[in-house]
Write a structure and sequence with these properties.
With 251 residues, the protein is mainly alpha-helical. The protein has one domain: Transmembrane di-heme cytochromes, Chain C (Fumarate Reductase Cytochrome B subunit, Up-down Bundle). It contains 9 helices and 2 strands. Strands 1-2 form a two-stranded antiparallel ribbon. The longest helix is centred in the last third of the chain and has 33 residues. It is globular, with a radius of gyration of 23 Å. The protein starts with 5 loop residues before the first strand and ends with a helix.
Length: 251
């Protein structure tokens, strides 16, 4: 068997890992409690309702998790501008032809199952990053619709900032439908996400699963050197453009 030299690379910073797991916990709590709010079960019990405040607790958990989800999401947007190159917002939004080319390469490998090809990515590959961009949009929709529904029953200033949302979406009924449908999007996405993580970990053997816990991945030395060289070229190109813009401004 051919041997390969692997480099241990620190990819996911602690804030990214903390965001990931806190976000996962919030989504689980929000989906479970939200489904109960949408279709509350009829419990038969002999105690007084005031001694069995289970639905009120369920709503409280949903609202508390929604606040954590919102601020955690805002923090991730902020970290996309101050974090390392693997957390940068450019990993999620196509900015050049190379991004689209890499997406097509990943599609051929992951979906069309072309076994003779292999795509190496230290952080998110282009297709995963682009999909996460739409997931972030779904996060924004869920925050807007959720707090838009909550605004009518809250006296606090933060939910009241979303009081305009029901009118934008056609009223509370349509708003609730969008909010509920987005919940199922998260459930389906989570299943596919977990599957692909284990799939890549099994096929590639580069520590995909453990990286979101410890932050480290293993990558071939040649691939690491190639990516560092490409990053260096991009930085040199950026410096060249800045110099040209300064010269034009002086002229």
């Amino acid at each position: 068997m051919a041997t390969q030299n692997l480099r241990r690379v620190f990819v996911w910073q602690l804030p990214v890992r903390f965001y990931h797991w806190l976000n996962a916990l919030c989504i689980v709590v929000l989906c479970v409690t939200g489904y109960i709010i949408a279709r509350p079960p009829a419990f038969q019990q002999g105690t007084e309702a005031s001694f069995a405040y289970w639905f009120g607790i369920n709503r409280f958990l949903h609202f508390a998790a929604s606040y954590i989800f919102l601020f955690n999401f805002l923090f991730r947007i902020y970290w996309g501008f101050v974090g390392n190159r693997y957390a940068d917002w450019k990993n999620f939004i196509p900015t050049n032809r190379k991004f689209f080319h890499e997406m097509w390469e990943v599609i051929k490998i992951d979906i069309l199952l072309q076994k003779d090809k292999e795509h190496l990515a230290i952080g998110h590959n282009a297709l995963a990053g682009f999909i996460y961009f739409f997931v972030f949009l779904a996060f924004a929709v869920q925050c807007l619709t959720g707090f838009g529904l909550y605004a009518a029953m809250s006296d606090w200033w933060l939910p009241n900032l979303f009081a305009w949302v029901p009118g934008l979406f056609g009223g509370d009924f349509d708003l609730r439908q969008i909010h509920h449908a987005t919940m199922w999007f998260f459930i389906i996405f989570s299943i596919i996400h977990v599957y692909l993580v284990f799939y890549h970990d099994y096929v590639e053997g580069r520590g995909e699963t453990s990286s979101i816990i410890g932050g480290w991945k293993f990558i071939e030395e040649e691939a690491f050197i190639q990516e560092m060289e490409e990053e260096k070229k991009e930085q040199e190109e950026l410096k060249r453009r800045l110099i040209q813009e300064k010269q034009k401004a002086k002229a």
